[in-house]
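User: I've been trying to design a sequence by hand for this structure and keep getting stuck. Would you show me what you'd pick, starting by listing the structure so we're on the same page?

Assistant: Good idea, let's start from the same input. This is the structure you sent:
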């Protein structure tokens, strides 16, 4: 009897495992009838096993496929767990999908993350997670608050935050005795200060109380980290769709929804109590104008506020801290940038205006080289919105059904030695004479994506990074030290392949210049 029990138990386990294996691999025959080359699934987990194993960031799995197949293929069929998708290998095809034939691929994969539209009312008001006409309308409304003229009017807000940033650095350098500053925290404090000042008109204390952790920042970090968990959940739902039913996940936690709702409501009430002649050129003022003109709701205002926070907080802090890290590693580049800043500063006499800051060529090149190396948007997955055919050559094409995901591997394009010799080196001169514009048109350089769904916060992000970099480089010589990490270790939980852990850099005070903030 006992032997029989063991036998049937083992049989049940084997049957269950066999059934699971068949379920996970059943779709692996999908591309066999197609002329598309197949990137053979490495395991029953699909082409990108790191999705489930979490041993490394999935971007590296994608990059391996890119390197293995790009020489003789413009695209390959892949499997994200058990789901068939297409990985684009040719930048010309990338441009076709993102720009020329945008109408056929206009929805993003992130829109599928929303499981409950009522519970995720703020996510549904963010263009990043929206589709169709709703995406277009929300994008138009949000972009109206960050046009070039609007940012120019708000330039003093960024200048004010830079003054506070320099005061924090001066205190740290003067009191530490070693001149070493943990740069990750510094950059996040700066972007938190400037973005909350611009969005809600509030001082969150990240620079005025640099030893304390702001409640706003804590809630923002919780909000962002929760979206990373949602990514894992969405991948689980790809394997087993029933997960969406038995585990009704939300994109944002209710705690942060309630917090940012109250923050926005309080900011509006404070603003409305101020005299009419004290109008402030910030995003909150724009939203109040939008409310008066179009009748947007409180929830719409919260959604737009979080859109700006998503565009200008974490990603800009990461870009800024990496640029400082690279400038410390490449002192000749740092000095060349300082020479440009000093020359132009003395030419202007009164300091940099918004236009002058945004048109400093070598500063622009340094930021773009950081965006190439770090790649804030490592992959761009687009959903095909109607049945179509992707022409790979005069003789070869592949039918793409509505709903299929087509991915542009931005990280791989940015690190391809055929386009960027010595791709792991920091060489801002690659982008001399506005080369980034031409490379974007060719589908090679896509830090903010391209086409109608290009990141709406690109101009805001560039201004935020540039203004901080300009003043820091004018005031300090930045060096690596014994505590500076040497390799670019990355967090598998993050979307972005960025330095993980503390970034310890040495800041040596230079002769005080009458910079553009004076």
């Amino acid at each position: 009897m006992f032997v029989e029990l063991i036998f049937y138990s083992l049989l049940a386990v084997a049957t269950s495992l066999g059934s699971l294996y068949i379920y996970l691999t059943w779709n692996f025959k999908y591309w066999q009838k197609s002329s598309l080359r197949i990137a053979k699934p490495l395991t029953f987990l699909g082409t990108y096993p790191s999705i489930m194993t979490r041993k490394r960031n999935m971007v590296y799995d994608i990059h391996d496929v890119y390197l293995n197949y790009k020489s003789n293929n413009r695209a390959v069929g892949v499997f994200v767990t058990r789901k068939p998708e297409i990985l684009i290998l040719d930048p010309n095809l990338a441009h076709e999908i993102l720009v020329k034939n945008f109408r056929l691929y206009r929805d993003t994969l992130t829109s599928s993350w929303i499981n409950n539209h009522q519970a995720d009312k703020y996510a549904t008001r963010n263009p990043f997670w929206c589709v169709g006409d709703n995406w277009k309308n929300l994008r138009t409304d949000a972009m109206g608050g960050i046009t070039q003229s609007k940012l120019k009017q708000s330039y003093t807000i960024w200048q004010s935050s830079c003054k506070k940033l320099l005061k924090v650095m001066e205190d740290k350098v003067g009191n530490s005795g070693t001149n070493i500053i943990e740069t990750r925290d510094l950059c996040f404090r700066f972007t938190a200060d400037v973005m909350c000042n611009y969005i809600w008109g509030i001082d969150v204390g990240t620079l005025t109380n640099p030893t304390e952790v702001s409640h706003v920042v804590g809630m923002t970090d919780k909000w962002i980290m929760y979206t990373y968990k949602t990514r894992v959940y969405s991948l689980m739902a790809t394997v087993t769709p029933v997960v969406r039913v038995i585990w009704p996940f939300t994109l944002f936690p209710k705690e942060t929804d309630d917090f940012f709702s109250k923050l926005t409501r309080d900011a509006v009430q404070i603003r409305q109590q101020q005299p009419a002649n004290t109008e402030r050129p910030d995003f909150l003022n724009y939203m109040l104008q939008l409310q008066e003109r179009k009748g947007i709701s409180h929830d719409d205002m919260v959604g737009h506020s979080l859109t700006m926070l998503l565009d200008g907080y974490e990603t800009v802090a990461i870009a800024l801290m990496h640029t400082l890290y690279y400038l410390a590693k490449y002192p000749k580049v740092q000095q060349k940038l300082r020479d440009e800043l000093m020359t132009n500063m003395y030419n202007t006499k009164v300091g940099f205006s918004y236009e002058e800051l945004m048109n400093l060529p070598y500063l622009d090149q340094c930021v773009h080289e950081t965006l190439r190396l770090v790649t804030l948007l490592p992959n761009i997955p687009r959903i095909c919105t109607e049945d179509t055919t992707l022409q790979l050559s005069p003789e070869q094409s592949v039918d793409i059904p509505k709903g299929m995901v087509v991915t542009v591997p931005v990280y791989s394009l940015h690190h391809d030695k055929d386009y960027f010799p010595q791709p792991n080196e920091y060489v801002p001169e690659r982008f001399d004479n506005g080369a980034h514009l031409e490379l974007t048109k060719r589908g090679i350089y896509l830090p903010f994506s391209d086409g109608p769904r290009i990141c709406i916060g690109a101009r805001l992000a560039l201004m935020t990074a540039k203004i901080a970099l300009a003043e820091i480089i004018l005031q300090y010589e930045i060096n690596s030290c014994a505590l500076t990490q040497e390799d670019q270790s990355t967090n598998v939980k993050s979307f972005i392949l960025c330095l993980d852990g503390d970034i310890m850099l040495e800041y040596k005070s230079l002769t005080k210049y009458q910079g553009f903030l004076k």
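That's my pick for every position. To get oriented when you compare it with your attempt: The first strand starts at residue 75 and ends at 80. The beta strands are 75-80, 83-88, 107-108, 180-182, 380-383, 388-391, 397-400, 405-408, 476-479, 504-509.
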